[in-house]
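Structure first, sequence second, as always.
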């Protein structure tokens, strides 16, 4: 297959914001929680926007050769890329490891990373514990309603990055818009949801018993990556790049790459792009960029 532009799946949740819609993402009511930019999941697949396969699901068209030998070695397409717009705080949550999830949920766990696109003044992210705690400490804080007091709160700005290994307790704060690159899994254990109710007057389900089994109770240590790499694990490696003029991206047979533009405008193989557009570049293919901008490139590496 050729290089293609993608149409994301649009998700509207209880905490949806208005920024992504204002930036040009389609929304019937002006509110968006998430756009699933690169997704092979059945409940939100990416759609091809151009070419002979226009209107078809990427997951139905891309072959093993298109995704590359490393991604094809996994039992499922390994990565999911989202844009997230937090109109209010997301729930305090944790994701299990693969070993726990496969044994207990018959699916994979979830490691992820966040790269901030923009944030309102004073807004930020809750990531990990301030110090070593026991599970009894965490359970007590949940019962008393002050779990946020145990978490690090990092005020953020555009360009900040946080890598979130499975087991790390976390929450995206109100007023933050970011790109999330993650394992292709939706498995989430919710610990605290601010006692809010949905449109039907019901509180969302919590999963405290399961969450307490998988939480990393050690003090959080921020993980840094070198050069332009902003996050890497066996399921994805992501890089922040900027250019002005012309640039070429060339893939070998080992992996596809995807690019999501955080800024700029121009052409990718003569296909127009603007801010927040995402492209899929198959393995063994090239993409010629003409224009300017900042983009996040994601692929798999050994």
């Amino acid at each position: 297959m050729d290089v293609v532009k993608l149409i994301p799946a649009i998700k509207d949740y209880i905490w949806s914001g208005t920024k992504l819609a204002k930036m040009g993402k389609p929304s019937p009511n002006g509110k968006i929680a998430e756009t699933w930019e690169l997704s092979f999941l059945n409940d939100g697949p990416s759609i091809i926007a151009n070419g002979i396969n226009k209107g078809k699901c990427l997951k139905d068209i891309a072959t093993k050769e298109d995704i590359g030998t490393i991604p094809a070695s996994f039992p499922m397409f390994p990565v999911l890329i989202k844009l997230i717009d937090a109109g209010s705080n997301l729930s305090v949550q944790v994701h299990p490891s693969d070993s726990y999830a496969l044994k207990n949920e018959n699916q994979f766990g979830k490691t992820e990373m966040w790269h901030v696109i923009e944030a309102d003044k004073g807004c930020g992210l809750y990531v990990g514990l301030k110090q070593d705690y026991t599970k009894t400490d965490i359970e007590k804080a949940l019962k008393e309603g002050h779990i946020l007091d145990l978490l690090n709160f990092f005020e953020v700005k555009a360009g900040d990055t946080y890598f979130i290994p499975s087991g790390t307790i976390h929450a995206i704060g109100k007023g933050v818009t970011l790109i999330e690159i993650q394992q292709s899994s939706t498995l989430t254990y919710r610990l605290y949801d601010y006692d809010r109710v949905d449109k039907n007057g019901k509180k969302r389900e919590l999963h405290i018993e399961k969450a307490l089994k998988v939480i990393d109770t050690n003090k959080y240590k921020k993980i840094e990556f070198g050069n332009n790499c902003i996050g890497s694990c066996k399921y994805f490696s992501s890089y922040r790049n900027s250019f002005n003029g012309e640039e070429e991206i060339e893939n070998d047979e080992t992996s596809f790459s995807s690019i999501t533009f955080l800024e700029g405008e121009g052409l990718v193989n003569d296909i127009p792009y603007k801010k927040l557009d995402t492209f899929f570049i198959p393995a063994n293919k090239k993409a010629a960029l003409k224009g300017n901008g900042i983009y996040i490139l994601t692929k798999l590496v050994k």
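Margin note: The chain has two domains: 4-67+77-221, 230-299.
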